[in-house]
Amino acid sequence: MMINEHLFNDSNELQATLTEHLLSILSKALVKKGQAVMAVPGGSTPVSLFQALAKENFDWKKVTFLLTDERWVENTHTDSNENLLRTHFLNASEAGFIPLKSKADTAKEGQEATEKKLQKIPLPTDICLLGMGEDGHVASLFPEAPELKQALDTSNKQRCIAVSPPNTPQERLSLTLSALLNTSQIILLIKGDKKRKIYLEAKEAKDNITFPVGHILHQSHAPIDVYWTA
Which residue, among 144, 184, 185, 191, has the nearest Cα to 168 in the 3D structure? Predict the structure, then answer.
């Protein structure tokens, strides 16, 4: 798999370049299909990017967003990825949004209903934007999660899976690896030297993939652009 790396010393320069890249992909999708779908992560890393996108004069009402994963908390909770996306992007745009969280008490109980909702989304997505944790996790595919093997099985055509990572306070719902890879373009956004070290280790480990991000890097389904800043 060819990986295009974009390395920046300045986070503002990265943000400007990545914003332009994302809008270019979405614009081409709108010309080709009249609509676009983009999967995005939560967490602190993409916040400034969401804010930058919200300021762009773009035809957002033709773009549908979904999250790569979600903590099973109320959508007003400070830990909610939906809350983060609404606060920093959706409230300032007319973009469509398909939430992963439902009113079910647990992610496991809510998985089936969310799966049916996700099955209605036309795939491939046009962009799958991913962050990465310092343990090499992407979306909510954590190294020690008991559901990891099932989530990483590309023959598993489920689009989402309930995940209970150890040492985390909340149950989560995550897109599966097969759903993440069912995209026209993967963009991996990384910040900091520690994460870059994990990324490089995962990139080099072709025969013994130990980090979940390695399954993103060593695949032939979708091209990858990596954006990194210190």
Answer: 144
